[in-house]
Amino acid sequence: MNAFTHASPYPVASADPEAPDAPGAARPSRPAPRRRWSRWATGVALAAPLVLAGCNAYPSYGAHSGATSQGQDTFKLYSGMMTTGVIIGGLVALLILWTLLRYRRRSEEMPRQFHENIPIEIAYTLVPIVIVAFLFIFTVLTENNVDAVVPVNATVTATGNPVVHVTVTAFQWGWRFNYPDLNVGIAGETTNGPDNHGPQMVVPVGETVQIRLVSNDVIHGFYVPAFNFQRQALPGVTNFFDLDVLHAGTYDGQCTEICGLYHTEMLFSVRAVSPSAFAAWAGSEVQAGHTLQLGGVPASNVPPLETHLTPSIPSPPLSTTKGSS
User: Fold this and answer.
1) For residue 262, is it within any domain?
2) For 83-133, what is each residue's pLDDT tens digit?
3) Angle CA(13)–CA(17)–CA(23) in degrees, nearest 5?
4) In whole angstroms, what is the distance from residue 311 CA to residue 262 CA?
5) Do 219 and 272 have their domain in common?
6) Number of domains in the chain
7) Is residue 269 within 8 Å of residue 250, measured between CB atoms?
8) Is residue 230 packed enough to be buried (19+ CB in 10 Å), middle (13-18) or exposed (0-12)?
9) Measured between alpha carbons, how far is residue 97 from residues 30, 101, 110, 128 in Å?
10) Cα–Cα distance, 99 to 4 (Å, whole number)
11) Beta-carbon neighbour count of residue 104 at 10 Å?
12) Is this prediction's pTM over 0.70?
């Protein structure tokens, strides 16, 4: 027995060219691609934006639509980003589902192997870049609109819209709203004021309100959820921003920076009224003595520093001791 007569443990290619394993033999034909899955996934991906647009031009996804023009710009950006994410995420999920169904295991045959696909690699590199660039451009445009302010001390905007100036001073633990052009000063601490929600800033609807935000002590945060807006009050720094309130109503605000013991009770509210009602309110505040002191120092109705602050204290727990019968 020799190497030529010893049986080889490895399979030997058949000499029959028609045999399935013979070199050059035709492989069994694979099932034709199920194009209906491809068409179905493409149709859903194209229809998703139309369905979302039909429900609402800007789906809220649980966010405020914005009670100011600046807040609405922010809301539109948020809604657009969320919608983009939903469409992309849905498309990816459909592609994964289509791949699982289209290329699921059907036999023991080894699938055709390949190591590169230049068009697909270029596509999945360029598409994310285009999406990010698209979102970046709209983010910059929105930030520019939100941060745009009229010139300091301007009385009217470029379109002739009146400008109301309010100096907002944050301090531990309250807010002060001064109207230098109207000689009105409003201040309060913790949960006093209307509805026990701190002091109230009154503004006219349809007019530009320019806020000058400062802090007397530590870092505070001026935040009104319905405005989709937050800005920090920093010691030694003056921040300016404009608000154009679109609808009458009362909007609650709060401090968003941990500023000390009574931070959670550093509340305030913004009440938007018609311009005529705003003028009447300013006149009544002056008559009530809520005016600025000489030299532009804080409002005269600011509580003295030695005023004791009493935070909200929860009711004591009920006694568990049983009385004797």
Assistant:
1) yes
2) 889 998 999 899 899 888 887 777 788 877 778 888 888 988 999 999 999
3) 50
4) 7
5) yes
6) 2
7) yes
8) middle
9) 21, 6, 22, 21
10) 49
11) 7
12) no
